[in-house]
Amino acid sequence: MELQGGESKVVSAATISPTEKQGILLIREEGKAARDLYLSLYIQHNLSIFPSIADSEQRHMDSVKVLIDKFGLQDPVQETRGAFTNQSLKILYDNLLLSGKMSPEYALKAGANFEELSILDLQKEIALTNNQDVISVYDGLLAGSQKHLRSYINALKDLGIGYSPQRLSQEEFEYAMK
Q1: What is the number of structural domains in the chain?
Q2: Which residues, listed in sequence order, are joined to residue 105 by a DSSP beta bridge?
Q3: CATH code of the domain covering residue 151
Q4: Is pLDDT above 80 for 12?
Q5: Segments forming the whole domain that contains residue 139
Q6: Whole-number Å distance between alpha carbons of 118 and 141
Q7: Hey, which of 126, 162, 176, 177 has its CA 20 to 30 A from 151?
Q8: Across-strand partners of 82?
Q9: The whole model's pTM is what?
C-alpha cells in the first residue's frame, strides 16, 4: 500500500475471529489480575513467592500484548492496581484478595486457585483457535501457569498444609503438578 509522498505501509494479512479476539483480551487482563493480586498479597504477608510470580505474570502480559499489537486490538489493561474492564475478573480479584488477606495460608491458596483458573482458561482458548502465533503464546503461558501452581502448592507443603484442587479435576491437577 502506498501513501502520499511515496511512503509505504505494511498491512497485516493476519486476521482473527471475534472469539479469538475475546480470548486474547481475556488472557491479557487475566494476567494483570494475577499480577495485581500477587503484588497486593505480598504487601499483606511479605512472602517472597509473590513478587517472583508477579514478575512472571508481567512477562505473560507482555507476551499477550504482542498479540494485541499484532492484531490491532484495544488493550483492556488499566494501570491502576485492582482496576479491570472485565467485571468477572474484578469480582474474582476482590474475592481472592479478601480471602488471601486472612493469613499466609489463605494467600497461597488464593494464588493456587487463580492459577487453576488460568490453566482452564488457557486450555479453553487453545482449543478455540487454529492461529499458530496465538497457540504458541498460550502454550508458553500454560506452562508458566502450571509452574506457578506447583510453586504455590510446594509453598503450602513447606508450611505443612495440604491443598485440594478448587477448579481443576484431580486428573488435571495431577498432570499440572508433574
Answers
A1: 1
A2: none
A3: 1.20.1260.10
A4: no
A5: 17-176
A6: 9
A7: 126
A8: none
A9: 0.91
DSSP symbol at 75: P
Q: Which of 93, 142, 86, 90 is nearest to 119 (CA)?
A: 142
- Within-domain flag for 92: yes
| pLDDT of the residue at 14 | 66
Residue 4 lies in a domain: no
C-alpha atoms less than 13 angstroms from C-alpha of 14 in its C-beta half-sphere: 16
Residue 5: pLDDT over 50 = no
pLDDT band at 11 (very low <50, low <70, confident <90, very high): very low
Residue with cell 486490538: 73
Q: What is the mean pLDDT of residues 129-141?
A: 97
Task: Answer yes or no: is 7 within a domain.
Answer: no
Q: Is residue 163 part of a domain?
A: yes
Neighbours of 174 (CB within 10 A): 11
Measure the CA angle with vertex 150, ends 147 and 154; round to 5°: 140
